[in-house]
Amino acid sequence: MNKHKSWLVTIVFCAAMQSGVALAGEAGAMSKADDMKAEPFRDAKAVKALAAGEKLDILSKQGGWFKVKAGKATGWVHMLSVRKGDAKKGADNASGLLALSSGRAGTGKVVATTGVRGLNEEELKAAIFNEAELQRAEANASSKADAAAFAKQGKLVARSFDYLPAK
Amino acid sequence: MKRSVQILLSSMCLVSVSAYAFDLGELKGKVDAAKASIPPVNPKLAEAVKEIKGPSESEEIAIGRQIAGNLLGAAPLVKDDKLQKYVNRVGRWVATQSERPDLPWHFGVIRSEDVNAFAAPGGYIFITLGLYRTFQSEADLAGVLGHEVGHVIRQHHLKILQQSKLVDAGGKALSKSVGGNDKVQQLIGSGAEIVARGLDKDAEFEADRIGVVLATRAGYDAYGLPSVLQLIGHAAKDDDRVALLFKTHPLPEDRLNKLGSAMGDRFDRVKGLTLEKRLLKVQK
């Protein structure tokens, strides 16, 4: 691999890894006590100890880490130590969708023009086998080779990783 | 269980011994014919064997197909072939990383604004449009599909069917043809009720652990599934769209806690792709 190429690979690699997702100051709170780190690594320097329940703003996300602002300090906290937002009564986001999903459609028959409905036990129990729709689903199947090609297009590389123990 | 296996084994011995004695004693000279004939199989015995070993793979797929057809009867596919194909590609790639890469895997997005996902035996997996809308990257999609693939490869629903037979409730109610395979339908109860039944909490935690691992094996960032759980946990508990999900699954907070301790620092040095730009957008 020549120098040019390896540089390019590095740039692409970094772009892919470091892009992160900007989250526009989403509110959150610590779900448990944990350190704020200077960098998104577990063994990075601790900036500040954060207590459970401490409020913070989530600025961006990178892998398993959130870049957060807590008080005046900014740094990285592991995402599994953070609870996003506050569960409010009713829907504070996408509330329009909530209003439409009434749950019960009565007949159990699907009205083709409205795609919006809730799924509940009664409906699922009353559901009637739909062969045509199932065949549509089956027609969209992807072969192993097709899926592998698509993965390659996205630069995804398969690797081995052991299943996790229960504890 | 042990006892029934013992009884089963001894009765199997009896069957073969008597067949052997029969050959030697009465049908000398007709050995060839006897060899060609199949030893008598007690149908009850065959059923018992099946109950212990579980259904064959083709039966598993037939069961899943019936459940999938019923589920689609309740909520059809989103009419967007590009989206369906996309989800199938990501799903198949994730499933390929499991120990059952060659099942006829099928994935689909169904028309419901609920936030939920369903797995049926044999590799039929559906997510709702409402759930799809919560995704911010392809890694999120991969993690969720990995969770559902986990249910399929560990046969969680199949085990429920074997343990508690929904047979009676469904079987008696059915006197006329219901579409699909009537016999299989009798096994799974009414419609798609099997997917409305909660699994064991441990089965959900196990599927979560499998989900992050399969996504990681597939080259994705491991934190797709936890991100989605976090977002769902954000939803109000009285939100209709998560009613069934919360009823049939442990709460997202519990799942995140369990998953967090299982993941520990194992993923710290593992980088993966999120591919947020490749995530196919759906219309509002």
Strands of chain A, count: 7
- Based on secondary structure, the structural category of chain B is mainly alpha
Our count of helices of chain A gives 5
Which structural category fits the helices and strands of chain A?
alpha+beta
Identify the notable features of this structure and list them briefly.
heterodimer, A: 167 residues, alpha+beta, SH3 type barrels, 5-stranded antiparallel β-sheet, 5 helices, 28% helix, extended, B: 284 residues, mainly alpha, 3-stranded mixed β-sheet, globular, disordered N terminus
What features would you describe in this structure?
The complex is a heterodimer of chains A (167) and B (284). Helices cover 28% and strands 25% of the residues of chain A. By secondary structure, chain A is an alpha+beta fold. In chain A, the strands form two sheets. Chain A has a five-stranded antiparallel β-sheet, with no helix packed on it. In chain A, strand 4 and strand 5 form a beta hairpin. Chain A starts with a helix and ends in a 14-residue tail after the last helix. Chain B folds into two domains: 2-53, no CATH class; 57-263, no CATH class. Chain B has helices at 2-26, 31-36, 43-53, 57-74, 81-96, 129-132, 138-153, 156-163, 167-173, 182-188, 193-196, 201-217, 224-234, 243-248, 252-263; strands spanning 106-110, 117-120, 124-128. In chain B, helix 7 (138-153) packs across helix 12 and helix 7 packs across helix 13. Residues 1-28 and 167-176 of chain B have low confidence and may be disordered. The chains are: A alpha+beta (167), B mainly alpha (284).
In short:
The complex is a heterodimer of chains A (167) and B (284). Chain A is of the alpha+beta class and 167 residues long.
